[in-house]
Protein: ABC transporter ATP-binding protein
Organism: Pseudooceanicola nanhaiensis
Amino acid sequence: MAKITLDNLAHSYLPHPKGEADFALKELNHDWEDGAAYALLGASGCGKSTLLNIISGLLVPTQGRILFDGKDVTAAPTAARNIAQVFQFPVVYDTMSVRDNLAFPLRNRGRDEAYVAERVQEIARMIGMEDMLDRKARGLTADAKQKISLGRGMVRKDVNALLFDEPLTVIDPHMKWELRTQLKKLHDDFGHTMIYVTHDQTEALTFADKVVVMHDGRVVQIGTPEELFERPEHTFVGYFIGSPGMNVIPARVEGNRAYIDGSHVELAHGYGPLGGKVEIGIRPEYARLSRTEGLPVKVRRVEDVGRHKIIRAEFFGHEINVIAGEDEAIGPDMTRVSFDPGRVNVYADDWRVAPQGRAA
């Protein structure tokens, strides 16, 4: 296990980057705590895999350093970093049996055969392949091969970190849930530092202690699932986390009121003068339709998804979503909407603004 430090780290795939726009990974300074489970979450092309490959040693960053427990490993090859990495698409030895594939990392480090056999059996049970140990990897489905790849990544207990690059892409949905549960249990049992890259918010939020949200090559927030949901530090986090995501509405904020086309929304706290692009953000869970209270809204359609209802509506020319209870009746006379003042976030140029007299 290791504490991983990213010091002034940035990367460009261009030979002579001239400005920030040329960097696939914008400048980053952060400590990844020893033994914590992190998820790198973001849309395709946001820089997640670039960052993971720098940590693993597959890429040398354009600028900055990476340290494991204070030791500079920026120029160290992957083999010298004592990590295990599992890629999006399965990497297995087709001519070997499942058993030998799982045993390979241990035998390569000279572990005795009794320990190898015990550990292989344990991992095979974890990935549901006990009855396939003597089969050749050649001819197995992509799903089965990826389980082998995951198992080989997890078989060693002595690694500094376990890195997963969208490892469940080719796994069927039911097995995804089981393997995520097993990965979490592995972390709880052995305390490895784990970094898990995904574009799937469910995978990220159910796996990680802390989620690192990336957008356009930049880390926009690092936090617990609750922090990302309740206090998105960037409007992208609000859009990306939640289903549906946060409503973001242009507004003019003065003190404890947000003005929208001459009408106002009450805020729980006061704000100083704000410049640039100002918006308020409110989760659909904290909006409520009414017949008499709130501001005018036009309901466009109601989607019943079983657990609750999603109301698609128009609010002063902006599309918003409201979540209502499954048993809540939504009638044509419900033409007003109100927001919980304590749950409204304020943003200037996409970044969350802390209320006056309060920490961010």
Q: What stands out?
A: The radius of gyration is 24 Å. The CA atoms of residues 285 and 323 lie 5 Å apart.
